[in-house]
């Protein structure tokens, strides 16, 4: 079986940083009967670098499990957060068919704070590569939600300064992806991701980005805006849910009228509080990406079968956290979570650093800040000569335990999404 394009069907990405999680992911999909299609091979270039795995290994690990489970449904494969043509080439060659373009390196992350005078000054540097400003100027776009988008000079100058270069890069990478896949006679789906920026993507910016890519012939299957609210790694949504819902409804309306394409939720691990709304407001045209949560559930296997080793892994993670958290959006502090030597109970320690479903209200996700300490240090742990070897040996010695833990974990995730369909 090879990877397939999943189109506009509701879909869910099961990122796996160990290569041993797919059996549990398959068990959850089979048990949930949610109708949500899976992507079992999903890794970013960043994750592959941090875990020392190649694109080919990611594909082989996932599809070996698919064959062993005799799983027969359509299965996607997401080459995530691609930033260069070289990223495209190595993942296309490995058999990926879903390509997530990430032009965030070209996003001016300070643009939301510039005054109008500053924007007018900086606009001169991007005027030539943002010819679309004149075409939108003065237009009012009405959305099915009743919201309107006023394309004023300040709005357009800010969009051009903030995303002008990023749009150009996204078009270049998108056209390259389509050329590479068309030449090889392989299918492809493209997602644009600007979720990893500090400032939310406004409706005007979403409308412009999507329309410029589509005008350039980039066939988007999904788009990941930076939603309002805090989508921190490893824990549930943080923020005002009604504000998020209003913004989500507008973004979904844009995706329908400019596309259609799916809205994609990155850092989707454990964000159960917003899953029902995402499914409902998009009318099922959504994609959710997870990855860190499967790694945290791998540590739950260690906590279950070898609590002493789990304590050692926590101590190591605490040593690495301040360094490793640099590229991730998290707020946990070492001071907020006691170190293992201060917690005698293994169960309490597991609650502090992983949390149990028994402690979570229905339709909500985990919130324990210790999860972020373990989440961000996955690369250091997996690549550590001792702790990486201990973790992988425990997972290989207890495959049924890991599969059962993942089945329970992702049945909760898929059920929360299904509630909105
Ligand atoms: O950590 C990564 O690089 C990926 O998991 C990336 O964050 C992915 O796009 C994601 O959001 C999964 O939750």
TrEMBL record:
What residues bind a divalent metal cation, as annotated?
81, 233, 266
Question: Which residues carry out catalysis?
Answer: 80 (proton acceptor), 191 (proton donor)
Question: Which residues does UniProt assign to the signal peptide?
Answer: none
Q: Which GO terms describe its molecular function?
A: metal ion binding; racemase and epimerase activity, acting on hydroxy acids and derivatives
Q: Does the keyword Flavoprotein apply?
A: no
Q: Tell me which UniProt keywords the record has, alphabetically.
A: Isomerase, Metal-binding
Q: State its cofactor.
A: a divalent metal cation
Highest taxon in the source lineage = Bacteria
EC code: 5.1.2.7
One Pfam match, given by its short name, reads: UxaE
Query: Would the keyword Isomerase be found if you checked this record's keyword annotation?
Result: yes
The entry's family comment says: Belongs to the UxaE family.
- What is the recorded function of this protein according to its Swiss-Prot or TrEMBL entry? Catalyzes the epimerization of D-tagaturonate (D-TagA) to D-fructuronate (D-FruA).
> Which HAMAP family did the record assign?
UxaE (MF_02243)
**Name this polypeptide is given:** Tagaturonate/fructuronate epimerase
Give the encoding gene's name: uxaE
């Amino acid at each position: 079986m090879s990877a397939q394009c999943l189109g506009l069907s509701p879909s869910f990405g099961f990122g796996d940083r160990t290569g041993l999680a797919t059996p549990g992911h398959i068990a959850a999909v089979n048990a949930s009967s949610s109708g949500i299609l899976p992507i079992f091979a999903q890794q970013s270039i960043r994750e592959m670098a941090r875990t020392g795995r190649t694109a080919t290994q990611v594909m082989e690990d996932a599809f070996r499990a698919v064959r062993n489970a005799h799983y027969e449904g359509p299965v996607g494969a997401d080459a995530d957060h691609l930033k260069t043509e070289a990223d495209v080439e190595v993942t296309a060659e490995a058999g990926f068919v879903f390509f997530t373009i990430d032009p965030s390196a070209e996003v001016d992350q300070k643009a939301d704070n510039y005054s109008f005078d500053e924007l007018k000054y900086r606009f001169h540097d991007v005027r030539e590569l943002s010819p679309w400003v004149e075409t939108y100027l003065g237009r009012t776009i009405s959305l099915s939600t009743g919201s309107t988008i006023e394309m004023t000079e300040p709005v357009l100058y800010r969009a051009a300064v903030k995303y002008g270069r990023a749009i150009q890069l996204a078009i270049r990478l998108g056209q390259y992806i389509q050329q590479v896949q068309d030449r090889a006679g392989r299918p492809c789906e493209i997602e644009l991701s600007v979720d990893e920026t500090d400032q939310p993507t406004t409706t005007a910016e979403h409308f412009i980005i999507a329309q410029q890519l589509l005008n350039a012939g980039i066939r988007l299957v999904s788009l990941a805006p930076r939603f309002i609210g805090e989508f921190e790694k490893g824990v549930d949504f943080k923020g005002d849910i009604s504000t998020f819902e209003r913004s989500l409804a507008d973004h979904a309306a844009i995706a329908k009228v400019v596309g259609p394409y799916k809205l994609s939720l990155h850092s989707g691990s454990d964000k159960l509080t917003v899953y029902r709304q995402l499914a409902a407001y998009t009318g099922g045209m959504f994609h959710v990406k997870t990855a860190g949560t499967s790694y945290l559930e791998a540590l739950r296997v260690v906590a279950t079968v070898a609590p002493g080793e789990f304590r050692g892994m926590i101590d190591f993670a605490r040593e690495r956290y301040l360094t490793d958290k640099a590229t991730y959006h998290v707020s946990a502090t070492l001071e907020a979570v006691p170190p293992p030597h201060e917690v005698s109970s293994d169960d309490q320690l597991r609650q502090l650093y992983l949390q149990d479903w028994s402690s979570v209200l229905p339709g909500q996700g985990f919130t324990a800040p210790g999860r972020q300490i373990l989440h961000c240090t996955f690369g250091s742990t997996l690549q550590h000569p001792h702790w990486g070897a201990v973790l992988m040996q425990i997972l290989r010695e207890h495959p049924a335990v890991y599969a059962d833990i993942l089945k329970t974990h992702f049945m909760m995730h898929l059920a929360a999404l299904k509630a909105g369909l």
